[in-house]
Amino acid sequence: MGFRAAVVTFPGSNCDRDMVTALEAVSGQPALRVWHGDADLPDRLDLIALPGGFSYGDYLRSGAMAAMSPIMRAVVAAAGRGVPVLGVCNGFQVLTEARLLPGALMRNAGQRFVCRTVELQVANTDSLFTSGFAADETLRVPVAHHDGNYFADEATLDRLEGEGRIAFRYAQNCNGSARDIAGVLSANGRVLGMMPHPERAIEPAAVNALGGTDGRRLFDNILASLATA
Amino acid sequence: MKVRVLVRLKPGVLDPQGRAVHHALEGLGFAGVEDVRIGRLIELDVADGTDPAALNEMCEKLLANTVIENFTIETEGGA
Q1: Are A106 and B13 inside 8 Å of each other by CB?
Q2: Distance from CA of A228 to the nearest CA of B (A)
Q3: How much is the pTM?
Q4: How far is the alpha carbon of B47 from chain A, nearest alpha carbon, in Å?
Q5: What is the pLDDT of residue A204?
Q6: Which 3 state secondary structure label does DSSP give A195?
Q7: Cα angle at B42 between B41 and B46, to 5 degrees?
Q8: Distances (CA, A) of A180 to A69, A128, A175, B45, B61
Q9: pLDDT recorded at residue A71
Q10: Backbone phi, then psi, for A18, in 5-degree steps?
Q11: Which residue of A39, A52, A63, A121 could cross-link A94, Cys pair, CB 3.0 to 4.6 Å?
Q12: d(Cα A80, Cα A46) in Å, to the nearest integer?
């Protein structure tokens, strides 16, 4: 049985093609494309990916308008059935606005757009996205965002830490995020939102100057977890 | 009926934009500015007699992100 992943494109998404390329490179299977105005997702999905970009021009708040789009009703319903969902960058912002993940992503504390490769510390090794990583392992993955400053109230942050739901932390905080948080998991561990772009780190440096394959390992983890599930 | 929704960052939520504007005001020589917080004003034109509960729901579902923001609703005439 082939790996079936769907990538959602919103008006203003700009990393959707990168996400498709990464998924296809890692799985060897075609990734399905879904448009924001679609009311339904393809059936029997193994993964739904919400890509980076500036959906709806970041009107009102980053991710706010996309969270109200028809396809997100289907994504929320699918997540409720346990279909894995990965939101990267703007996709993470959409997941918080859709309340599939707690917290919010505010303007970077330094006010500047941050675009560089950062070091991430793996903080969870139990989820389908992170099971192949070693605890406290350091990954190198690019970030590119203006609104990546993760905020949640103290009680929520304590709960996330207590439940092991922080997937990744910045080794050096690049945007002001509370407790250095770079990626957060849902209570059942099947929804992951992260600001860094794993889909931009799937080829060795010799092939791609942005370089590195640490992002590819996240997709490898998903495939390996589904194969053993 | 005109409705004004004021969306503000909750107290305690860091406001980098407000801080930058505060510094800029000081740079222009305006002394005595203690703090600057930046929010958002949303003006709605709604049918007369619109249920205040519906306005509240609009704010909670879309106009404000209640994780980080508070909102106040002002209807024309102060009703």
Answers
A1: yes
A2: 37
A3: 0.94
A4: 23
A5: 85
A6: coil
A7: 145
A8: 30, 22, 9, 42, 28
A9: 98
A10: -60, -40
A11: A63
A12: 14
